[in-house]
Write a structure and sequence with these properties.
32% of the residues lie in helices and 23% in strands. The chain is an alpha/beta fold. The longest helix has 18 residues, at 222-239.
Length: 264
C-alpha cells in the first residue's frame, strides 16, 4: 500500500482519468434528484477570475456555463492525464501543478474552488495557504469534502473480502467535513458549512464492483470478486438495492482572518 495521500493519488490519477470517471459514475444512483455538480454550481461564488484546483476531468463545467457568464476560468491538476481532459473545457486556461505550489501571482483570483481534492494532499494546510495567497481581498473559497462516515457501506466491502486497501479512508489525510471548518478558520473569515443531502441506492452489484475495481491497481482475485458480488447481491435481495450513506459538505469562506463557523 502507498504510504502517503499524495503517493496514492499519483498511483490512481497521474496517467488515467478512468478511475475518477468510474467513481463519479456510481453517484448517478443518488437519491437527491439534483446532482452534486448541479447543486454545487448553484452555490459557488462565480464571477470574474475563477480558479479550480485539482479539477480532475472538469465535470463541474459541464453543469456550469462559465462562458455565457463571462467567467475567466483557470483549471489545474497535478495529473497530466487530467490536464489533457481539462483542455477540452471551452475557453479555460489549464496549468499542471501541485496544489501546494500554485504558479500564479498573489491576489489574482476572485474565487478558488477545491472540489473533493484536499484529502489527497499530504499537507492540506499548505494548500490552503496557497489558496489564501492567490485570492484577492474579499475573494471567496469553496471547498467540498466528505465526513468520516461517508460511504461506510462501500468502505466495509474491501475488508470483508480480504482487501482492506479498498477502504477509502486508509489512503486519505485528516481533512474531513468534521475538521475542515477548523482548518479554514485559521486563514479565512466567515466560514460556513452546508450539507448536500442524499444517499446512494444501487440496484445491481455491477456498478459497485466497477467502483471497487477503480480503487487499486491490484485487481480482486476471483475468490474476492465472488465474495464481493455475493455480499452485494444479498443486500440487494434483502433491501431492494444496495444502500450507501453519503456525507458531503460544501465549506465556504472569505479571504481574511476573522474566525467564525456556522454549521448547517
Amino acid at each position: 500500500m502507498t504510504s502517503t495521500p499524495s503517493a496514492h493519488a499519483v498511483s490512481q490519477y497521474a496517467t488515467t482519468t478512468e478511475n475518477l470517471t468510474a467513481r463519479i459514475a456510481l453517484h448517478a444512483y443518488g437519491t437527491n434528484p439534483q446532482s452534486w455538480f448541479s447543486w454545487l454550481g448553484e452555490r459557488l461564488p462565480l464571477a470574474g477570475d475563477v480558479l479550480e484546483v485539482g479539477a480532475g476531468t472538469g465535470k463541474l463545467w459541464t453543469h456550469v456555463d462559465h462562458v455565457t457568464r463571462g467567467i475567466r476560468l483557470t483549471l489545474t491538476d497535478f495529473s497530466g492525464a487530467m490536464c489533457e481532459q481539462l483542455r477540452t473545457v471551452p475557453e479555460a486556461r489549464v496549468r499542471q501543478c501541485d496544489a501546494t505550489d500554485l504558479p500564479f501571482g498573489d491576489a489574482v483570483f476572485d474565487t478558488v474552488i477545491a472540489n473533493h481534492m484536499l484529502y489527497h494532499v499530504d499537507d492540506p494546510a499548505a494548500a490552503l495557504r496557497e489558496f489564501a495567497r492567490v485570492l484577492r481581498p474579499g475573494g471567496r473559497l469553496a471547498v467540498a469534502v466528505n465526513g468520516r462516515d461517508h460511504l461506510e457501506e462501500l468502505n466495509a466491502i474491501g475488508p470483508a473480502v480480504g482487501r482492506p486497501d479498498l477502504a477509502l479512508h486508509a489512503t486519505q489525510n485528516d481533512f474531513t467535513a468534521e475538521t475542515g471548518p477548523g482548518y479554514l478558520a485559521r486563514l479565512f473569515a466567515d466560514v460556513s458549512v452546508e450539507r448536500y443531502h442524499g444517499d446512494l441506492e444501487v440496484p445491481s452489484p455491477d456498478p459497485v464492483l466497477t467502483y471497487l475495481a477503480s480503487l487499486s491497481s491490484e485487481p480482486l482475485t476471483p475468490k474476492q470478486f465472488a465474495a464481493a458480488r455475493n455480499h452485494l447481491q444479498a443486500r440487494i435481495d434483502a433491501d431492494g438495492s444496495f444502500r450507501v450513506r453519503k456525507h458531503t459538505v460544501l465549506i465556504t469562506a472569505s479571504a481574511g482572518t476573522t474566525q467564525s463557523a456556522d454549521h448547517v
